[in-house]
Fold this protein.
Amino acid sequence: MIAEKFKLFSFSGKMKVMHLSWMAFFITFVVWFNAAPLVSVIADSLGLTTAQIKTLLILNVALTIPARIIIGMVTDKYGPRITYSALLAICSIPCFMFAVADSFEQLALARFLIGFIGAGFVIGIRMVSEWFPAKELGTAEGIYGGWGNFGSAAAAFSLPAIALAFGGPDGWRYAIGLTGLMSLAFAFVYYFNVTDTPKGSTYFKPKKGGGLEVTSKSDLVLLIVMKVPMYATLALLGWKLSPAGVSMFTQDATNLIYAGLLFVFLIDFYQTYQVNKHLFSVEVPEFERYEFKQVAVLNVLYFTTFGSELAVVSMLPLFFAETFALGMAQAGMVASSYAFMNLMSRPGGGWLSDRFGRKTTLLILTAGLAIGYLSVAQIDSSWSLPLAVVVVMACSFFVQGGEGAVFAAVPLIKRRLTGQIAGMTGAYGNVGAVFFLTVYSMVSTQTFFYVIAVSAVFGFITLFFMNEPKGHIAEVNEDGEVTLISVS
């Protein structure tokens, strides 16, 4: 089955699995971003303040960072079919909670829990990697990521119209509730129509649960170092909700959050050590090793690519409105050109990666990304609007193409750990978004774009530490049989 040709519009075999997976991802993003286009109507309906609206938007991303790590572990252990189906079904519950909420507190709790659905992306990365050979993997993962990611744009365009169609002050409730119903229904569609692997293939699971396995002591140190920014970002979100930010929490409550994060980090540290303590007494066989620096480099690149995309999509409508004196509706339509590029750019980045190599493609796209943001930083009111749109779209090609190229490489590192590696890399995208949006709140727009460009240059430098995936990776099943999986 895996040897069949790559026929994009086929709906059988591996192509059926890919299409159903991007549809599942598409729905998770519709649900995750279902409040953003309706926020003004929700605010009017329940009398929310500007600070409360900002709080809801922060809460929307707060849980996604740890969720992607957790879902990565669950996917590797139980398989993507069960995990995706369960996530879609369970996350419909906070979606329904949000639709019937009558107070800010109820909205806030539901929005916080809905953030978990943002981890769905990780599951499909493992599923697609099981069904496609290395030479097609970049293209398949790119289509999965690009077409699924379009769910946020689809929500922005369709949900206001759906709310208007229902009409009345509760139109937004029906629109939000409909996305929850869609998520619940597709959970059953996915469960009954896919399998974790093609017939006759083995689904390799981690040898130990509770933490990511590494294969050397130096990699263990690097893994722990790479965990720190994720906890720091959650602490930053806590600070944003404190009296120094939007004052949702008291200072005592905020201090409790900091203490809780430190406690969880220590548990995480202990669990990671327990999973890998054998490294201090036994050497891992050469054929089973992988280099964690590969993961670290991809984390840094996704921090810049997807992190900057989430941040720029959030501020671009206002940037166009202020720079070119546009109405918010016009500015929103113009700014959507950035997100629309996902349909082609992310699959394009994956395709280029399949054709020209993982490392070479990432070097070219990351360099283009840095130049792109340096160019966008130059846009001011003296530019013509069409030229500004062209420059922004060109920049977005390198951003989203880079995302596709990152996840063309992720599944080629260690098959049985693909969910966890994808989870960590995906989480770094959210870390980047929170970092860049925090920078945006403190500096001028031009400086904001310069900061992203500098992070791209840093990512470009780290790429020289990455090795091009080649040959085979070895996996051992429960019976001790070794399987070689081609990665080139």
Observations:
- Strands lie at 472-476, 482-486.
- The mean pLDDT is 91.
- The first strand starts at residue 472 and ends at 476.
- The CA atoms of residues 231 and 264 lie 9 Å apart.
